[in-house]
Amino acid sequence: MLLPAAGAPARQRGRALQSALRDAVRSGRLAAGTRLPSSRELAADLGVSRGLVTEAYEQLTAEGYLRSGRGSGTWVGEAARAGVRATRDLAPRAPGVRVDFRPGTPDLSLFPRAAWVAAQKSVLARLPHQALGYPDPRGLPELRTALAELLTRRRGVVADPECLVVCSGVTQATTVLGLVLHGHGVRAIGVEDPGSPGHGPVFTAAGMGMVPLPLDGGGLAMEPLRRSGVRAVMTTPAHQFPSGIAYSAQRRVELLDWARAVDGVIFEDDYDGDFRYDRAPVGALQGLDPDRVAYSGSVSKSLAPGLRLGWLLVPPRLMDEVVERKRTMDLGNPALDQALLADFIARGGYDRQLRRCQRAYRERRDALVRALGEHLPGTEVSGIAAGLHIIARLPERYGPESRLLECADRAGVAVRALSAHLTVPVEEPGVRLVIGYAHLAPSDIARGVRLLARAAGSR
Amino acid sequence: MLLPAAGAPARQRGRALQSALRDAVRSGRLAAGTRLPSSRELAADLGVSRGLVTEAYEQLTAEGYLRSGRGSGTWVGEAARAGVRATRDLAPRAPGVRVDFRPGTPDLSLFPRAAWVAAQKSVLARLPHQALGYPDPRGLPELRTALAELLTRRRGVVADPECLVVCSGVTQATTVLGLVLHGHGVRAIGVEDPGSPGHGPVFTAAGMGMVPLPLDGGGLAMEPLRRSGVRAVMTTPAHQFPSGIAYSAQRRVELLDWARAVDGVIFEDDYDGDFRYDRAPVGALQGLDPDRVAYSGSVSKSLAPGLRLGWLLVPPRLMDEVVERKRTMDLGNPALDQALLADFIARGGYDRQLRRCQRAYRERRDALVRALGEHLPGTEVSGIAAGLHIIARLPERYGPESRLLECADRAGVAVRALSAHLTVPVEEPGVRLVIGYAHLAPSDIARGVRLLARAAGSR
């Protein structure tokens, strides 16, 4: 048994003794039923005071590792195997990839670290102690007010702070809303096809089935939606993911008419609505009918997904149930993070950050389109007006898709086909790729496209 | 219509025009079906360029607020009422209370603000960009490692970082574990009676019924537990809430035997296990059998509930399902908060904070016991060895309970009776109160007890 040297304080030596005994019982080195030496004997063996040993025996007896016999003596009680393994990291990464064109992540190097530290400092200098207590499950009033103003101004939503819930990104918004709708007897939700594969497990966890619904040029095709029988649908009207189309004005009106007719709910995922490069962003669908549209967004694309901060605006009639779900799920988002974001927004930091990203991403989009034209001539690009990715349709000669993806993979280029977003992949000439560019420097974009072109032509 | 002065940049004037039109449609001032003036007319009326008006009409048409007729002209389309109310705060507060003895909150003024800012700064100076991306749903590896070390050392748990999930406090741990057990067909969980009323709605939301189980001097009484038929039970063995008893060594062993016999799970809520004043803390039950005990705790009592940071250690066989629930609930806790806490722990800040709180709370406990002896003589106190509250049994002459609570309320003293924690309140002579003291300065404690004594004697 290794104990701190005799010069160490008794408390430290006592703790070490207890810890060593606990480990010995757990690891099985001291098997259940083993009788321990008397405190006098062990103290002499270890060269420590008898009191230290007595205390250790008492403590471990109180914890159930040891038991004291009726007469005298101390025995080993129940035991457990310890064995601490090395800590692994399950965060989504792409080891061995030279250029990763998969969409979904912004440029994390644009995160405003200095401004964030300054905001944290400013917040902790003035926040009343009370704000560190159990929070309003909907979020800090100052953040809800700031977000309502921001979303009204930037996204054209009708944002009543009383109907806004701060949450851990669109994922939590989806879980919360899914559970609330489930409570109303809704068992299936329509989803765009192609769409985001990430929502599947979230709806499943909420007990909700998914009904994939096709798109046409204007957005979700209305006839299949009407025939489907669903009463809830998840959409990305500002910039459909992944096709990149913006819902037409007519389709927006038709969709709302449908929702009113079936007494349904539209869940608007405004995942990258802030990023539009050649004109002003298209306003959110929610602004047209906040009684029919639940609206969600987050800072995952504008700041960082790791912040896990987003918002959910819900039709007033669902608000109480949404708040109750949020409350039982985690009592509310972390208060300091919320105060920090409110401060950041109030000082204009959020608008500045969006402008900064907007400039960087427009430049990267242009670099991507240029590189595709140069190295993969004949490629048609679409969905380039907004967002963090585009759709590239490569000429037939680069197909078939499986072959191209295999070659890209071998070349160290991670890229996803549009078909991966489809429930039933359609056979078509050529290959359509979903290419994310926001997280890549222009030089990496050019290099990635060169590698892709070489791989595509290497057969 | 109020637009920025003619000197303002065109972009700013254009945005203001769009915003004003949107508001007018939403508020109903421009009713659906109204025909708008031509762009030429409106431009002349407002003294702006015609292009600005055309652009505004186009933008709002794209968003569905306006529609363009087949021939010419622009009409108002669908509309929504805006009406932003003032932001309310639903955080639990006690307005009008002079001294609040209700338990559950630590002293928020002890939150180490300066160290927190320093940790944030240090973290943001060295964190790789990648750490700001989508996180490991179990938590940052560095925090899981730090917590595993901390909990092993301080609480005697068997903490394998691979079986540790960082979560938003014990509430989220309860929801996650509740949903996982529900998935295994568990529909009811045994809870201590008296116990924490907060868990009720959380279990209910997870589809779980509660079976209240009585206590005896050693902890949860075994016979009623065995008879109840439950296979899962939530316990507070280190410091039962609210009675304050520590489970006896024998009861710990009996409880584990029961769990093994019914192939069940014990959920250990170690809500304040770090605070023990007169001897070393009693180690956690989980350390005796990590295959049968799920263990949860948080920084809510040691730092602040507003941080929403806690941990859940689960039996290895449940780990995958727990992680999947956490993933679909929010994808994981905020990465920066986690890195910050890991840094704080690694620099010894957490141990320092516990020592600081320990000193402050011991002093307050002593002040409370002293004040009760002085102003409410004959009061018996129990559960004083640990935690942030005590149980005070007032002599019969101060009863009945309802009358005492009414008088306390009128005197501005918020205090809770033990009976409020019981499923079926028992008739007994005298009044037993649960008195939280950790969040109160010694002078406030003395004042509160004086007020209470005056109120109790005022009839």
Question: What's the structural blueprint in terms of helices and strands?
Answer:
The structure is a homodimer of 459-residue chains.
Chain A: H1 10-27, E1 35-36, H2 39-46, H3 50-62, E2 66-68, E3 74-76, E4 99-100, H4 113-126, H5 141-155, E5 164-167, H6 169-183, E6 188-193, H7 199-205, E7 209-216, E8 219-220, H8 222-228, E9 232-235, H9 249-261, E10 265-269, E11 293-298, E12 310-313, H10 319-330, H11 335-346, H12 349-375, E13 380-382, E14 389-394, H13 401-410, E15 413-414, E16 416-417, E17 431-436, H14 442-457
Parallel strand pairs in A: 4-15, 6-7, 6-9, 9-10, 10-11
Antiparallel strand pairs in A: 1-3, 2-3, 5-12, 7-8, 11-12, 13-14, 14-17, 16-17
Helix pairs in contact in A: 1-3, 2-3, 4-11, 5-11, 6-7, 6-10, 12-14, 13-14
Q: How many structurally independent domains of chain A? A: 3
First-residue to last-residue Cα separation of chain A: 65 Å
At the first level of CATH, what is the class of the largest domain in chain A?
Alpha Beta
Number of strands of chain A: 17
Find the CATH topology of the largest domain in chain A: Aspartate Aminotransferase, domain 2
**Into which percent range does the helicity of residues of chain A fall?**
40-55%
CATH architectural arrangement of the largest domain in chain A: 3-Layer(aba) Sandwich
The amount of beta strand of chain A, in percent, is: 5-15%
Biggest interchain interface, per-side counts: A-B, 109 and 111 residues
Low-confidence stretches of chain A: 79-85
Using only C-alpha atoms, the radius of gyration of chain A works out to: 29 Å
Largest sheet of chain A: 8 strands, mixed
Judged by helices, strands and strand pairing, the structural class of chain A is alpha/beta
Mean pLDDT score of chain A: 89
Please give the oligomerization state of what you see: homodimer
